[in-house]
Design brief:
Blueprint lengths: L5 H13 L7 H12 L2 H13 L6 H15 L1
């Protein structure tokens, strides 16, 4: 698995979250964007980091990662 720069992953995820116009569904929209455009390794690396350091990202990014993990369970 390629090691991605965690700071770059956090920054990209936060940029996606800020640019979602429909704020009522921002976590789902961020999750869907990540699922569509990010490599699974990128999501996994960010998820692992956020699991240890949740305070380093917004609630929207944390919610998007939870949304993605629920989608995988189905």
């Amino acid at each position: 698995m390629t090691s991605h720069d965690i700071e770059a992953l956090k920054k990209m995820a936060e940029q996606i979250a800020r640019n979602i116009p429909d704020r009522s569904h921002v976590t789902q929209a961020v999750g869907e964007h990540m699922r569509t455009f990010w490599a699974p390794s990128m999501i996994a690396e960010l998820d692992a980091h956020v699991g240890m350091h949740p305070e380093e990202v917004s609630a929207e990014v944390r919610g998007a990662l939870k949304y993605l993990s629920k989608k995988e369970e189905k």
